[in-house]
Amino acid sequence: QIFNQHNAEAPNLEPAFHRMAQMEPNLDHDVSWFLLPSYWAKMVVALISFLCFANSYDGDFVFDDSEAIINNKDLRAETPLGDLWYHDFWGSKLSSNTSHKSYRPLTVLTFRINYLFAGGFYPVGFHVINIILHCTISVLMVDVFSILLGGLQFSSKGRRLNLAPKSSLLAALLFAVHPVHTECVAGIVGRADLLCALFFLLSFLGYCKAFKENKEGHTFSVFWVLVSVVLGAIAMLCKEQGITILGLNAVFDALVINKINLLELIRKFMYKDKSLENAGLLRKGLLFRITLLMCGGAGILYIRWRIMGTGPPAFTEVDNPASFADSLFVRAINYNYYYSLNAWLLLCPWWLCFDWSMGCIPLIKSVSDWRIIALAALWFCLIGLICQALCSEDSHKRRILTLGLGFLIIPFLPASNLFFRVGFVVAERVIYLPSIGYCILFTYGFSLLSKQAKKKKILAVAVLGILLINVMRCALRSSQWRSEEQLFRSALSVCPLNAKVHYNVGKNLADKGNQSAAIKYYREAVRLNPKYVHAMNNLGNILKERNELHEAEELLSLAVQIQPDFAAAWMNLGIVQNSLRRFEEAEQSYWTAIKHRKKYPDCYYNLGRLYADLNRHIDALNAWRNATVLKPEHSLAWNNMIILLDNTGNLAQAEAVGREALELIPNDHSLMFSLANVLGKSQKYKESEALFLKAIKANPNAASYHGNLAVLYHRWGNLDLAKKHYEVSLKLDPMAPGTKENYNLLRRKLEQLQKKGG
User: Fold this and answer.
1) Does 263 reside within a domain?
2) In angstroms, rounded to a whole number, what is the distance separating the alpha carbons of residues 340 and 347?
3) Is residue 110 part of a domain?
């Protein structure tokens, strides 16, 4: 019925833009697939895309989510909204030398809205939005594929017709269930790709709407062309790839709207044929529309350049080793190998990994490397497809292949290393948009096989099997993205040579308190990458805590030798040197750390501890004061100031510092305890008692809290309450220093009072 309706309406259409797909062979004629009404097709796609990733809804914040969301101050209400336009995706200033220059303010804005509505960092809301976005994009794909595979045609009432309902449904299903999309959907940071894809598709559909004939009889609408440019700009503000839609709109205009034969155009241009206008290039409106797209794109890029600055992103060799190779040959051959790996992930998305850097893919350094075969296979296929796209006599075939290759290649260009260095080797997230081209080519290939096959149902069952396998793979991969432990461990079998994988497994184990297992993975990370300073730093920290100070010092010294501006390693080296009682070296290490990171409150805190050990009390107080200025909620620094002033008899100053600290951190029980001790010594017993009781309410199992409250009651003369809290303290910690002696003194005093009373 659908096809009869299209054929019945076609003769009534205007000949300019509205009949462009009528004379071409219908792709659906050869496709053995389900024919569903448009709204049912969209519901099926939405449901299946939801089922693929539904189990990720209650996952944790994992991997890059920590930096982009939890540690990103741009999400907090106290950060002005205007700052989002001058910060990168991770919350750093774009002008900073350490910025990755990833400018995605609209994505960060959605994270901020998530945070405000949830009232904090609760991952469920973040995950749900990602799942909804992917379902929405998958539904839009039905319309997009109907245009790309069936052409653009409108009914007499101005309604766009779906000339390939079966093919567009198949392609949309392939897109919806592709396992390579798991990182974008199940990883919250992947929202950048999802939002970019959403506005990317809306820009394309808006551009198509420009060719719906209006009441004045104009053949295209400038308004909708401009709308598509604006939507392309919004896509770019979500992620950099979004700008590529403007180029794809131009390709679509030339091939589908104007039906330009590229090979014929090239021939005429080379031979300076005066009939170039007959080739379609100078048809009315095409150059004008392409000029609008080019001017829009140039304007968007210029504004971004002015905001971002001219400095390139700061990446290291471990992020993208091929880009640091001295030989142009080595760079070129490895870039092409990376392209072949991306193509393989689209064809066979079984080996998926959260990170492909740090030795996961060793460099190809000679033509004798067997992996050269992958490059040859990639270019053999690409050249074959390009030849067919250019040289085929079948205009329908030329159009679909060219559009398929265009959507496969053009959105991938920003990640290709051709124009600028990128900070990764292979990244599954950047294949989200290029997979559109893969789905077009797969569907067209399926139609060709169906045309030749005698038993079409077997072929349809095989494709159904592929879809089912992909659904199961998506569900499995989504479950792995639910927690860092599962995610990191899943990568061990895929990239066993990746030092970052071992580092992240080790870090996850260390965070859970399993230091022995963490050491094993950190050592492997350092073995795989002897210059991995972060692994050295973390391993050195654990060894320091286990009192293996000499090995810790060796590792941390090597880390700062490899990366002299590594402030955290300098600070940790100072802590180790302090423990080894090499105080001058420790002080020098702390000051070197502060030199490289001027706002470093933890380092000032440790420097203060060093000065306290050396009885340099004024220097210690100044260091801790610096720590609290840089980080007002630095409880340990406040506590140490109160305790040092208390121990040196400066009770009034200790009381003032304690009250100042509690104003800033009113619920910190350790500060309540320290100030209560000072007030007790100043004979302000009532106020001291109130603070002790408040601290005990917050932390009832602290033996020292009960012990010191007992001392207060003992001094105050409230002996029964003193006895009660001494007993509680000894029950919690029978070895509490001084408590047993004080308790025995109290008991003797009570016995004496009883004798006198008797």
Assistant:
1) no
2) 10
3) no
